[in-house]
Amino acid sequence: MTSPANSTVDIVRAGLPKRYARERRFRLMGMLAIGLGLVFVAILFLDIFSKGYTAFQQTYVRIQVHYDGSVIDPAGTENPDTLAFADYMALLKQSLREVFPEVTDRRAKRDLYQLVSPGAGQVLRDRVLANPEIVGTTEEVWVLANDDIDMLVKGHIDRDLPESNRRLDDRSLAWFDRLVDQDAIEKRFNITFFSSGDSRQPEQAGIAGALMGSFYTLLLTLLFSFPLAVGSAIFLEEFAPKNKWTDLIEININNLAAVPSIIFGLLGLAVFINFFGVPRSTPLVGALVLTLMTLPTIIIASRSALKSVPPSIREAAMGIGASPLQTQFHHVLPLAMPGMLTGTIIGMAQALGETAPLLMIGMIAFIVDVPQGFTDPATVLPVQIFLWADSPERAFVERTSAAIMVLLAFLITMNLTAVLLRKRFERRW
Amino acid sequence: MRKLIFAATAAGLLGFSGNVLARDYISIVGSSTVYPFATVVAENFGKSTPFKTPKIESTGSGGGLKLFCAGVGVEHPDITNSSRRIKASEIENCAANGVSEIVEAKIGYDGIAIANSRNGTTYEFTLRDIFLALAKMVPDPAGGETLIDNPYKTWQDVNPALPADRIEVLGPPPTSGTRDAFAELAMEGGCKKFEFISAMKKQDKSKYKAVCHGVREDGAYIEAGENDNLIVQKLQANPRALGIFGFSFLDQNTDVVQGSKIDGIPPEFESIADGSYPVSRSLYYYVKKAHVGSIPGLQEYNREFMSEKAIGDEGYLTDKGLIPMPRAERSEFQQAVTGVQVLTGLD
User: Fold this and answer.
1) Which terminal residue of chain B, N or C, has fewer Cβ atoms less than 10 Å from its own Cβ?
2) The domain spanning residue A258 has which CATH number?
3) Positions of CATH 3.40.190.10 in chain B
4) Shortest distance, CA B312 to any CA of chain A (angstroms)
């Protein structure tokens, strides 16, 4: 059938366009896949940013406050405890009544007080505690507006809806408009969001508590997991004999890396809390559980970093008389360190974004006070996002997105550090 | 580096042993329905007293009571919130673990709303409609006393007065207290209108419960997770769907969703407070008496929660959607709780 003219070259030539087309199709599909991925990431980011950026600003109301001594300190004791727990809200209510003297009806007054945040008295308290001498004087103070007012200013409440379908009735809107006319409403940078702990009043809620919780938890996780993981990696890779026992251990480590994280939470509850009595909801128990979760990741990364150090380095060190331990710690470990650190940072980033194992050990909780140490009750960033996403108040929607932005910023920084470390220090042979 | 690790570990262990000896904050667990109210009280308590702000975990009513009943001591919670009353079996379990003295505090009522988007039609249901539309087994529409798999596809099939829209209801999963209460109040309420099913209660209680509480699984009832906000968002996107969630979420979102009337009564503050709205339930929290006095601030927290400024007619919890108890019932519980009166039995 094959004539000399119809040689192998011709067969190859005939099939060539088809093979080229196949390659072009594959490239195109690859580009499409990446493009699609990027589009989804862009949509996700756009959605989060468009919902969340307003949370970095907060509405304040300007109010003339008279620090009435008979309300703050009726006995005139100047005792710090009396000053700390006085009814500062009463001062604000008094001031609001002076701004709107026509409001006399009980129900209307109640609505009037809703213009400012229920926690607005805090500002006055802080000012009085800082300088008790201002009691008896009058000054202008900017206090937090209520979340409904804040939503109105940010355009999340539609004035054109019928009154019954709005969170703010016509009367409140009229009051608000009068305050706007007096230049007594202002949007400012939302410091509260970065300086305070959780709160059920959206305008007072902040991520400082969750950030500190994440910080303490991750610090402990790093301290627990890094030495353990590097030690086991060195031992398994360089010292341990290769037999079925070490094979079994290796299989188990790889297996552990794929175990759903909730399992580690259950283990933590049974072992650390119920058996060892580690206090619930603390960064300490959180770190112990996350250590279990990140250990396999770091061990696997560290072992492959050790594997990539060429044997000639070890042989040279041994050749000039270094002991096996010296060989490892003076020569192999420094060369493997960038790879190990990259693995560690990726493991930490994974731990930062984890909520499921924390569910079982009580870290999904409402905690107002910013944790001060490893054994204070604490929560972490992703948990804070989860809790806010579940809150009924409308103003928590933007705060949820803002908290996601903060979490994303941390994750991107950590992963970027990992990439830079690898680029900067990793050596290839 | 090595010194740092050692120091940190030592510091961690020191702090940890200190914590085991004493806990200077109140630990609260329990219902996700009571959580939004308890957190507000806790926050106010933390800000207005020298005590630390209590820690509140949202574990669900059943999970909370389990943790609560595990024993007496600082490692166990002091308070559990519950969106239903404690069961006799739970009291026994508590007593078996040494938690024999429990103080019961009823804080008010919560309504469960069936709502849809403001862009959709306004519904008016009877409890019977709700049962027929959502139950797994319903009485044969052809008549007789047999139960068949739910054949209804549209609301009109259930009741000719309702629109011809497909039945599509988003609601909480079986783990939720809201679902338990909905099954008990709405589904069973409609279920027992059928005399032969009602008669079943005396003969075969478990079968009666299975019939009345069984929710259909053919796609008409969609389990939308515990997140009520998500249900509200889904209703906005789909005007033909209905959603089941707590009154506080309806109250916060009246601009986008509307509550349906049930037996002619709209889900409103007043109708839930006077008991005329049929799908409402009581909310509770339980305190371990043994911890009162040893955990700082526990008694003061009780006082704050039961005070008129919290659960009263115009208390701050009503702003968050809690429906207050009638005055007489309220003062009864206020006295019982602040007097640390122990629960003696379920009546």
Assistant:
1) C
2) 1.10.3720.10
3) 2-109+282-338, 111-280
4) 14
Yes or no, beta carbons of B252 and A167 under 8 Å apart: yes
**B225: nearest CA in chain A?**
A390
> What pLDDT is stored for residue B338 in this prediction?
87
The ipTM (two decimal places) reads 0.78
Residues A354, A341, single domain; the answer is yes
For range A321-325, the mean pLDDT: 93
Kindly determine whether residue B255 and residue A199, on different chains, have CB atoms separated by under 8 Å.
no
φ and ψ of A174, to 5 deg: -65, -45
**DSSP letter at A62?**
E
A1: Cβ contacts below 8 Å, ≥ 6 apart: none
To 5 degrees, how large is the angle CA B148–CA B152–CA B157? Answer: 125
Contact of A373 with chain B, judged by CB distance below 8 Å, is answered with yes
Do A86 and A143 fall into the same domain? Answer: yes
The model's confidence at residue A327, banded by pLDDT at 50, 70 and 90, is: very high
Residues 264-293 of A with CB under 8 A from B: 273, 277-282, 284
- Please give the pLDDT value at position B80: 95
Helix (H, G, I), strand (E, B) or coil at B26: coil
- Asked if the Cβ–Cβ distance from A166 to B249 is below 8 Å, we say no
Report CB contact under 8 Å: A164, B254.
Answer: yes
- Closest chain A residue by Cα to residue B258: A165
CA distance B23 to chain A (A): 9
Residues A258 and A374 both lie in one domain? yes
Write the pLDDT tens digit of every residue in B280-325: 888 999 999 999 988 999 999 999 999 988 898 878 888 777 888 8
Given a cut of 50, whether residue B20 has pLDDT beyond it is no
B residues 240-259 near A, CB within 8 Å? 248-249, 251-255
Q: How far, in Å, are A99, B94, B198, B293 from residue B97 at the CA level?
A: 58, 5, 38, 20
Q: What is the pLDDT of residue B346?
A: 75
pLDDT of residue B254: 83
Lowest mean pLDDT among A66-70, B10-14, B208-212: B10-14
Chain B residues whose CB is inside 8 A of the A365 CB are: 55-58
In DSSP terms, B281 is beta-bridged to B110
Q: Identify whether A82 is part of a domain.
A: yes
How sure is the predictor about B219, in pLDDT bands with cuts at 50, 70 and 90?
Answer: confident
One domain for residues A26 and A96 = no
Whether A178 and A295 share a structural domain: no
| CATH (residue range B111-280) | 3.40.190.10
* B4 pLDDT higher than 70: no
pLDDT at B272 over 60: yes
Are the beta carbons of B58 and A366 separated by less than 8 Å?
A: yes
**Chain B window 24-53: which residues touch A at a Cβ cutoff of 8 Å?**
25, 27, 32, 35-36, 39-40, 42-43, 46-50, 52-53
* pLDDT tens digit sequence for A353-398: 998 999 889 898 999 999 998 989 999 999 999 999 888 888 999 9
Asked whether the beta carbons of residue B321 and residue A392 sit closer than 8 angstroms, the reply is: yes
Same structural domain, A194 and A218: no
Is the separation of the CB atoms in B257 and A397 below 8 Å? no
B328: confidence class by pLDDT, cuts 50, 70, 90: confident
Residue of chain A with shortest Cα separation from B14: A375
Q: Decide if pLDDT at B17 tops 60.
A: no
A76 and A150 share one domain? yes
Find tokens 């429990």 and name the residue. Answer: B102
Gap between the Cα atoms of B248 and B266, Å rounded: 14
What's the domain range around A269?
Answer: 208-425
Cα–Cα distances (Å) from B165 to B118, B123, B135, B153, B168, in that order, read 15, 11, 18, 9, 9
B300 reaches A (C-beta below 8 A): no
Let me know if residue A12 belongs to a domain. yes
Q: Do A375 and B15 touch (CB under 8 A)?
A: yes
Q: Which numeric CATH code is attached to B2-109+282-338?
A: 3.40.190.10
| pLDDT at residue B227 tops 80 | no
If one counts the domains in chain A, the total is 3
Instruction: For residues B316 and B256, give the distance between their C-alpha atoms in angstroms, rounded to a whole number.
Output: 24
